[in-house]
Amino acid sequence: MANRLPWWVGGILMSGLLLLTFSIYGADRPIGASTYVPYAASLIFNLDPEHYSYIKKIQEAGSWEGVMLLGVLFGGFITSVFITKSFRFSLIPTGWKTYKNNSILSRLLWSFFAGFIMIIGARLAGGCTSGHFMSGMSQLAVSAMIFGGVVMLTLVITGKLFYNTKGKK
Amino acid sequence: MADIIFVVDEVNTTITDRVFKMVETVINTEHGSVALVFLIGVIFGGIIQYTRVDKFEKIAGFSMLKDTIIPKMLFLTVGLTSIGLYFMIDAGQAHYHVKPIILQGLIIGGILFGISMAILGKCPGTGPVSIAEGRIDVLVGAIGGLLGGLVFTLYYDDFFKPLMGESLGKTILTDFFKGNEDMTAIIFGIVVILIAIAIPKIELFDEADLSQLSDDKRPDKKEN
Predict the structure, then answer these.
(1) Considering CB atoms only, which of A36, A54, A150 is closest to B111?
(2) Which end of chain A is more exposed for a tag (fewer CB within 10 A), N or C?
(3) 8 Å CB contact of A129 and B125
(4) Which segments within A47-169 are labelled E, that is strand?
(5) Statement to judge: residues A54 and A104 lie in one domain
(6) Phi, psi dihedrals of residue B161, rounded to the nearest 5°
C-alpha cells in the first residue's frame, strides 16, 4: 500500500493506454477482458470452433484478449513483486473477514459461484468493466451506459444486502 | 438441450498446439503485433496493480460504499478517453467499435455481473491481477468463470442467444444531438471528469498491507 499510485494518476495512465489501443498505430480496437474466458475454456476443453458457433464467433477477439491476458498476468506479477510488494498467497481477503465471516470454505464457495455467474453475465451483456464501462462509454455508446447503470445499481444493492456493515467503520 | 455432447476435434491436439493457434490468430489479424498486444496487457496489469484497484477492499468496498477509488478512477478514465477518442476518430486516427444495444442481455447480464462483482470483489480485468499476486480465492473464482464460459458456449444457440433478444442498433450519444456532435462529446467528457472529481474520496484499507508499513507511511494514520 505504501507504493501505490493515486486514483487520478491511474485514470490518466489508463486513458493513455485506451487511446493507444484504439488508435490505428496501436491495435485499432478496444480493450476487453471477458471474451478470453469462454475462449480459454475452448482451449482447455478442446471445443472445436467448427462445432460451436459461439467459439467461432469470438475466435479473433478471444485470441487477442488471450494474448493480452498473458501480459496482464505477467505485468501484475512483476508489479506486485517489485513495486507494490503485495505478493503473498492468501485464501481469504481481510475485508471478507471483517464484513462477512472467517470461513475459508465460505469464501471459496462464494468465489466459485460468483466467478461462474460473472462470466455468464458478462457474455450475456457482451462486455465487462473493460469492454463496456471503459471502452464502451469512452465511445459514448448507449449500450455501455445501460450496462454501467445496471451494474452500479446492482453492485451497491448486493453490497448492502450481502455484507454485514452495521456498526463497523 | 438435453443431449449436449462434447464434440472433440478429430485430430488429437494438445493444449500447447491450441495456444500456438491462438497466437497465430493474433498474428494473422490486423490488431497489432503479438508483442504489442502482450505489452498492452503488461501495462494494463501494471496500472491496476500499482493503483491497487484490484483489491477486494476497493471493489467489494465500493459495493458497501466504504471505498470510492474505483468509481473515481473509472469515471476519470472514461471522461479523458471520450474526449481524446472522439477527436481521434474524427481525424481518422481510430475507429468506432460500438457494441449493440441488446436490451435483455444488457439488463440480465448487468444484474448477474453486479451481484458477482460485489461478492467476488473482482471483475474479469482485475481478477487476473489478483491471481498474479497470489490470491487463491480469486483463482477458485476463475475456475468458476471458466465453467461459466463453458456452459455459455455449450448452450449459446439453444438458451443464451434467445435470452439476449434482438439488437436495437449501435446508437451512440451524439446520434441524439445531430448538428452538435462535437459539443456533445466535449460536454459528456467534461461532465464525467467533474463527476470523478466530485465523488467524495473514501477509502477502506487492508490491515494485511498496512501492517508492512511504518506508522508515518500508513495512509489511514495520516491526517487529511
Answers:
(1) A150
(2) C
(3) yes
(4) none
(5) no
(6) -60, -50
Query: What are B70-101's pLDDT values in tens digits?
Result: 999 999 999 999 999 999 999 999 999 999 99
Residues 6+ apart with CB under 8 A from B108: A121, A124, A125, B163, B164
Q: Note whether A51 and A85 are same-domain residues.
A: yes
Q: How many helices (H) and strands (E) does chain B have?
A: 10, 0
Q: What is the ipTM of this complex?
A: 0.96
Q: How far is A136 from chain B (nearest CA, A)?
A: 6
Question: How far is it, in rounded angstroms, from Cα B202 to Cα A148?
Answer: 21
Statement to judge: residues A102 and A159 lie in one domain: yes
Q: Which residues pair with A90 in a beta bridge?
A: B135
Residue A23, strand partner residues: B94
A87 touches chain B (CB under 8 A): yes
Cell 448507449 sits at which residue? A142
Record the pTM: 0.93
Residues forming a β-bridge with A141: B172
The answer, for B83 touching chain A at a CB cutoff of 8 Å, is no
Q: How many domains does chain B have?
A: 1
Q: How many angstroms separate the CA of residue B1 from the nearest CA in chain A? A: 14
Name residue A136's amino acid.
G
What are the pLDDT digits (tens) for B158-200? 999 999 999 999 999 999 999 999 999 999 999 999 999 999 9
Residue B50's Cβ-side half-sphere holds a number of Cα atoms within 13 Å equal to: 20
Range of the domain at B149: 50-223
Q: Confirm whether B35 is domain-assigned.
A: no
- Give A 2-21 residues with CB within 8 A of chain B: 2-15, 17-21
